[in-house]
Structure formats: C-alpha cells, structure tokens
Amino acid sequence: MDIQLLNLKGEKTMSKEQCSKSGFNTLLRPDTTTTDPKEGVLATTRTCNGVVINNWDKEGITNVTLRHRYRNDPNQEQSRTWPSLGFGGISLTDLDIIYYTGVGTGYDYWWIQFTDSTGQVWTCKDNFYCYLTADDDGTKVLFALNGAAEQMDITMSSGGCYVSVYKQPS
C-alpha cells in the first residue's frame, strides 16, 4: 500500500518513505506544507529551554550561536549567543524556545555556529529540523557538540536526533 502525505488542501506533498523525523526540507525557506497556528489550526503553544554542551574542543569554543525557528521562519525565531564555552562545559544561560504542537503545525528548525580554538568557524546546514512534542514542554533540551563525530547531538524528552557539523568555507 502506497501511503501519501497530503497538505491541508489535500494536495500530495511526499510519500511516507520520503519523510523522516529530521532533514526533509532542503529549501532554505519556511515549510509551506503546514498551516501557521495563528491561522486557525488547533495548536498549543509550548516552551522549553535549550543548552549547549561543548564536547568539541578541549581548548574551548567561542562565539557559540544556537538558533531555533518554527517552520524555518525568521519571524518566529529565538537565538542566543554565548561568548565562550569550556570543554565539557554547559552554557550557563538557556535559550528560551517557543514551539507549537497539534494537528497541522510545522517543524522546529535548528542551526548552530561556533569558532574552535584554532579560529575555524563550524556550522550545520540551515534547514535541519528535529521536532519537539508535548513531552518536551517545560523541559531542558541538550545540544551537545561532538567533535569526534563532527556532529551536534540533540537530546530531548521525546527522543533526539543529530546533524553533521562542518567547517564553514572562508
């Protein structure tokens, strides 16, 4: 049986096999297959907090910026920059995250950028998503920078995911 995902207008968007929990939308623009909660979708506004853990560079990292966007929309963005983070350290101030759950709501998109002790800037793709659920409401989400694997591991109450982190071209 071929399962198809449809948008709210009943139009085919993708097959079930094409959709995974993270990384589907390769377009650097807001997700258009869902409807904004402000437009009448039955959605619940929720919040949680995010912290970054430096398991990347034993000498520490600097200019650490973590960003969350609902539907990859710059108008629905929260971000925080920490000036430095020692090895094994956890950011002292949290990123306050606002997200939505319910039928027809969009995805949560994440992006990180930081500078290692040699001055190299690292980042991840701009359209990486890993969605939050009702189980994450009021909790702390961990964003661990894993230098050995060159990836960011996200751990949340509802599960987790990861994304490759790469050197930003000069």
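the 2nd protein, sequnce then structure:
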Amino acid sequence: MSSSTLAAHVKDPSWVLNPITEISGVRLALIISSDGILMGASAPAGTTGLDDRDRRDMIDRVCAAVSALHGASRAAAVEALGADTRTPVSTITVQLDAEPGAQDGTSVGTLMVMPVGGGSNANIAAAFGAMTPMGVIAQTMATQAKKLGEVMSVSSRTSGPTS
C-alpha cells in the first residue's frame, strides 16, 4: 500500500492527539496539513459557549493561521540564518503574555507547532495554558508526531502477500 493510499485509509488521525489532550491545561490540539487544512482535532476546551459551526470556524481560523505562521517562520529563519530553503522547521512556539489589564502578570498561554515526520506535510499544533509544563507538552507532541509520521509514511509494497 503506498503512503498516499495509506493516508486515504487513515481518515481521522485524531487518535494521535489523545495523549496530548490528556495533559492538564491543554485547550486544543490539531493535526494540520502544510496548506492549512484540518486533518484531525481534539475537542477544544473552553468552547462550551460555541455552537458546532462557531467551533469549526474557530478551528479553521487556527489552521489557516498555523499554516501562515509555519511558512513565515521558515522564510524568516532561512534568511536570518542563511540556511538552505529545504531545511525543515523543528518547532515553533508562540507564547502570549498577560492580557491587558491583568494584575498577576502570568501569560495567557502558548501555541506550539511541530512537524509530523515521514514526509507527511503535516503539523501537530497544541494550545495550552500558562501553568502547563512546556517540556511535557513538547516531549508528548514529539512522540505523537513521530508515531503519526510512521503511520503516514509506510513504504510501498512491491509484491503481493506470500502464502
């Protein structure tokens, strides 16, 4: 089975997000194609006031923004570091500081984006609160991205089953 055929059979890869969403403080986890198309999503926390359409619209906006962020980050890093344009992006982290008027000075939270391996042209993104340990999120995302990359990049078989 070719990787494109396998990808078609992995209709909803959201299972890979479960270990990420089990971490306390994770608000949203997504699998996003490099062109901004949603491939899989967790149930977003903190969206109980939104109907399904509003929730989907919010997720679509996040997917488009993550795709743009990934492209802009790559372009900036390649220029600034003089790197080859094919150099892959490892991790993008955006941390929002305290909301205007907040008295405690804590950050709002963090959005982390990490590529899925295996040439899948996809990213995993997770949004999480300020009190969530970033290292735990990063390690879990890396583990899950590797697992998904392995599933999405199974090599082609050249012969049929043996009997």
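Residues 30 and 41 are 4 Å apart (CA to CA). Strands lie at 26-33, 38-41, 92-96, 109-115, 122-129.
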